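Lab notebook, design round three. We kept the backbone fixed and only want residue identities now. Task for the bench partner: fill in a sequence for the structure below.
Input structure tokens:
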């Protein structure tokens, strides 16, 4: 089903036929640029990983659907994109927002190809993908108090996770920022007040958070911990995956019927701050948001 004429036959015979640009090949070229952006600090590691994962998923899709690892980018059609979306949801188990993120990566690559005239039309024309915004959960003061009062001395792995989670509830730090928090990020002003000052790993925006008594006590509690001494960090934070798994156990012990995650701690900080009459502009600054509309998503009145 390809066009054949004497010029094409001659080009093939002489070996001068230009090879078509391949979709996954172009995608990986784009990922090299993403790697440069990562090295410069323009994007964060999870963003780069999403791009590389999307290229892998696309290759898996071509192998499953067409029994080849790659296809000419000119052959990518609107219907193929629909099939890829179905593949992401059914075969890779992606929820709506994850699938939308991957499709946006594909769209970016196709626009790149369009700009270089490797394709003559955009197969995304007429397509719209909407992210869903679910109700963000947070802990009430009563629920947070129950978690703080759990006796976990016999379960040190859960105690460290609980204390890290509580630290985030009282500072609003994201998990990656909590993991990288060092004593250099804790500073006193000329009035004797202690502050956490740290640029966010995700955006580079500066977080400026007052050091409250609870996180102050937690820092003292873990000052002699081997991980704290070896790495120079404030708390012995474990991986995000393990922490979220252990938080489920903590929720069961505390009889809190909410899905505890490290990110829920950040929403809890914003909401409790708002409930205690902290201006939303101040909360935005503490969370390191560049747009106050983002803060409005995090902070909900109780």
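Proposed sequence:
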């Amino acid at each position: 089903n390809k066009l054949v004429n004497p010029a094409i036959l001659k080009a093939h015979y002489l070996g001068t036929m230009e090879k078509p640009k391949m979709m996954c090949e172009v995608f990986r070229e784009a990922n090299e640029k993403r790697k440069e952006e990562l090295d410069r600090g323009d994007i964060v590691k999870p963003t780069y990983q999403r791009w590389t994962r999307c290229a892998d998923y696309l290759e898996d899709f071509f192998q499953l659907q067409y029994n080849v690892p790659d296809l000419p980018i000119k052959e990518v059609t609107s219907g193929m994109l629909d099939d890829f979306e179905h593949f992401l949801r059914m075969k890779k188990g992606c929820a709506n927002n994850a699938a939308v993120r991957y499709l946006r990566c594909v769209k970016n690559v196709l626009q790149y190809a369009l700009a270089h005239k490797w394709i003559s039309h955009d197969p995304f024309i007429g397509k719209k993908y909407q992210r869903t915004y679910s109700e963000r959960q947070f802990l009430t003061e009563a629920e947070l108090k129950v978690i703080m009062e759990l006796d976990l001395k016999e379960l040190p792995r859960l105690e460290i996770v609980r204390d890290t989670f509580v630290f985030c509830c009282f500072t609003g730090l994201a998990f990656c920022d909590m993991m990288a928090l060092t004593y250099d990020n804790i500073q006193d002003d000329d009035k004797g007040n202690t502050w956490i000052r740290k640029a966010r790993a995700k955006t580079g925006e500066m977080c400026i958070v007052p050091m409250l008594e609870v996180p102050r006590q937690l820092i003292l509690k873990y000052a002699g911990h081997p991980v704290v001494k070896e790495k120079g960090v404030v708390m012995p934070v474990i991986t995000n995956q393990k922490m979220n798994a252990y938080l489920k156990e903590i929720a069961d012990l505390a009889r809190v019927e909410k899905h505890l995650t490290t990110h829920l701690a950040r929403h809890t900080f914003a909401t409790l701050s708002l409930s205690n009459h902290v201006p939303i502009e101040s909360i935005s600054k503490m969370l390191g948001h560049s747009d106050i509309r983002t803060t409005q998503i995090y902070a909900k009145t109780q």
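Keep this in mind before ordering anything: The chain has a mean pLDDT of 89.
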